[in-house]
User: Which sequence fits this backbone?
């Protein structure tokens, strides 16, 4: 399960997320994750996926269920990867669209700190798509992925 | 699958210094998603990715050569998706030297000097290229 320290990181500081899946022939594909919500038990999390990725992602998950999720705080490069299994999916709810908006603003804030340039930050924040699909994921493992020699170390279980 | 050709319009997304996403898959079917510094343009049918640490990504592509990379053109408001196949690794030569210089520039600009260090330039064939425009 996700350690409490990493739950706080995901809730308060992580500013960008991505998902990786693979098909039946082990061909990988990537997907933007514009928003996420962590269950306080740390055993599951829900990621919100844009329409552009939805069909390829669902096809992969319904084939084999395997998913890798990477979350980074822009600026510090603090990054964690969560590996898990697909549990279920459903359309996003209105409150989750609002959550994605709040996370887009967190992303923009981190970019303003990094670039000190309102125009660049606004353009990059605009690249974060709105979600249409919610995917519930059961957590198997958590890894440090912050760049450096410690990257890849497993921290849970 | 035959090689695809990288269109000229992808070049801004490869040269803008914005981090990219890379996904690989181990032989036992576990995907791995990681943020990388750069996708380097080699020629119309090849890109190079930086090998900086002995990572799961490096292990995966040596047992299953297929990979996926996503790059963003934030000015053109386009996401590019590349399906790739690992071909070879270079530890010297013009591609390595050019990537090394660019990685050092990115490291310096992002406070990661001394942490980002190029060990090898991994060369990939481009199998397909997809473009997705987005609206702000």
Assistant:
């Amino acid at each position: 399960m996700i350690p409490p320290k990493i739950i706080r990181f995901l809730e308060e500081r992580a500013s960008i997320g991505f998902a990786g899946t693979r098909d039946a022939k082990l061909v990988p594909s990537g997907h933007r994750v514009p928003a996420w919500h962590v269950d306080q038990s740390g055993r599951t999390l829900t990621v919100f996926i844009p329409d552009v990725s939805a069909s390829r992602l669902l096809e992969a998950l319904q084939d084999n269920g395997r998913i890798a999720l990477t979350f980074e705080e822009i600026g510090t490069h603090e990054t964690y990867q969560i590996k898990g299994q697909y549990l279920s999916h459903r359309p996003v709810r209105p409150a989750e669209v609002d959550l994605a908006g709040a996370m887009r603003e967190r992303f923009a804030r981190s970019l303003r700190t990094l670039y000190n340039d309102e125009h660049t930050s606004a353009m990059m924040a605009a690249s974060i798509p709105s979600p249409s699909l919610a995917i519930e994921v059961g957590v198997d493992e958590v890894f440090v992925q912050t760049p450096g020699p410690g990257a890849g170390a497993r921290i849970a279980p | 699958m035959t090689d695809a050709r990288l269109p000229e319009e992808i070049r801004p997304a490869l040269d803008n210094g914005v981090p990219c996403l890379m996904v690989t898959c181990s032989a036992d079917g576990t995907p791995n998603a990681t943020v990388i510094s750069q996708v380097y343009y080699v020629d119309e049918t090849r890109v190079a990715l930086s090998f900086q640490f002995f990572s799961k990504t490096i292990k995966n592509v040596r047992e299953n050569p297929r990979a996926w990379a996503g790059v963003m053109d934030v000015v053109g408001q386009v996401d590019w998706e590349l399906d790739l196949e690992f071909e070879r690794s270079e530890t010297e030569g013009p591609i390595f030297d050019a990537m090394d210089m660019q990685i050092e520039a990115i490291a310096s600009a992002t406070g990661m000097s001394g942490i980002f260090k190029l060990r090898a330039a991994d060369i990939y064939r481009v199998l397909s290229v997809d473009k997705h425009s987005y609206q702000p």
